[in-house]
Amino acid sequence: MRFRRLAAGTAVLVGVTMALGIFTAAAGAGLTCQMRWPLCDGPLGGLFPANWPSFIEWFHRLIAGATGLPVLATAVQSWRTDQSSRVRYASTAVLAILPIQVVLGALTVTQYGIAVLFAHFATPVLLFTLSTLTAAWTYESQVSPVTGRRVALLALPFLALATLLSPRFLVTFTAPIQVVYNGLLLAALAGLLAAAVWMDDQRATQFATVGSLLSAAILIVGRRAYGDAIVYLIVVGLVVVFGCTLLAARVGDTDRLSRRLTETS
């Protein structure tokens, strides 16, 4: 139970760190520490921030650094407590990839470029996916396929709201809207990943997996959504994800009812 809670808490913290990073970029605070890394622009030689914008960037760095502790603990404990091979390898992969994200974060400050930005957006999505899968696999023996269906159903309103808040579609994509939009997508992605792991119907798992992959891709593309074509492509993608999620939930429910009828007869 302790390890399951640690794995789940780590996944949540990775998601929170992503949200903070999105807010930092959206608020225009990503380069406020005078393009210095890891120090900032305030007292004690830059150990602290000098103003509110640089505080946003400084606080994001602080939380990102703190996230490394539970990531390390999850990876170490997965081996010490003899978790399944999937859990051990996934948690170890998160630990291995995290330093790459740290380096990418530094490069966005010292060498600002499209390729670095894309990698800096994509890597956290991979970290969140692996962290969520680690947590889902640890709970797999404790939950039923019905729970997987319920989680898929729970993802539907998140996807509907995210569609309405899509980048530059119906609303002005302000910093708070960006955080809410990406938070909704992260919640939906977590639900789809959990559903893919916990459902026992192959078709339902496939639908949830496709929805997860599309959600992850939309999260990455949405960070650079410029031009009408990309905006509408994201909306269409979200509608497809919604459909995959609905199908996963319905197929899982139909399969469960079929088994009940078979057992009854």
Automatic annotation (TrEMBL):
The keyword Iron applies. Signal peptide: none annotated. InterPro entries: COX15/CtaA_HemeA_synthase. The chain crosses the membrane at residues 89-108, 114-139, 151-173, 179-198, 205-223, 229-249. GO terms for molecular function: metal ion binding; oxidoreductase activity. The keyword Acetylation does not apply. This is Heme A synthase. The lineage of its organism: Archaea, Methanobacteriati, Methanobacteriota, Stenosarchaea group, Halobacteria.
